[in-house]
Write a structure and sequence with these properties.
The chain is mainly α. It is built from five helices and no strands.
């Protein structure tokens, strides 16, 4: 199941609504624009596609962790702290994915000016 399918399948559940809210919150409260990773600006397209795939997998796994809200050890007993940790982890993974996509756009030759032109 893809992340989109997962979000859609639970879109009417409490978890789905929370995930949608988190994604919207990330968009609204981002302090800076997501910028390309300059270290990889000369990477091959195929290498960057691999990086995007890895980041997507991490986002998917973080979303599943949030949905399942599993307790992994005895010190992990507070459900709200667990959810907050899973949410923060998902947010971090989403930003990493956005950065990988921005880097791909840079590799393909799209800068801020060319994006503004359409």
């Amino acid at each position: 199941m893809t992340l989109d399918e997962h979000i859609y399948s639970c879109s009417r559940t409490e978890h789905g609504l929370e995930l949608k809210r988190l994604l919207e919150e990330l968009k609204l409260h981002r302090e800076t624009e997501i910028r390309p990773c300059t270290k990889w600006s000369n990477a091959r397209v195929s290498d960057q596609l691999d990086a995007i795939g890895r980041e997507y997998t991490e986002v998917f796994n973080a979303a599943i962790d949030l949905a399942n809200n599993k307790q992994y050890d005895a010190k992990d007993y507070d459900p709200q702290k667990r959810v907050n940790r899973y949410r923060a982890n998902l947010a971090e993974k989403l930003i990493d994915l956005q950065t990988a996509c921005e880097t791909m756009l840079q590799i393909l030759g799209f800068d801020d000016q060319s994006r503004a032109e359409g």
